[in-house]
Amino acid sequence: MILVVGGLASGKRSYVKTEYGFSDAEISSSISENYPVLFDLQDIINSDADSERFFPALLGKRVIICTDIGCGIVPLDPAEREKREAVGRLCIRLAREAERVVRIQCGIPQILKD
Questions:
Q1: What angle do CA 61, 111, 38 make, to 5 degrees?
Q2: pLDDT in tens, 29-45
Q3: What is the CATH number of domain 2-113?
């Protein structure tokens, strides 16, 4: 599994399509078994319970794309802070299991783990 992270509109999906040859038809924001690439992981996870529940299915994906939501202003809403923490902890777990971790910034890939 490959984990691709980066800021909003940083070129993550374009990188995955260009570098690994996936088409739009193979990329989804659903954890469905039918799609090898998952994008917008941050929109699926709301709590640690979600991350525990989805972790096994995520390991079966070829590529997971997640927008980095851990930077910037800390939300006032406790639920939003919990979501941010859950996404961060899940990305740490996924990065441990990933064969490759790539950070995209300004459309430029930086290999963090290979």
A1: 20
A2: 998 778 999 999 999 99
A3: 3.40.50.300
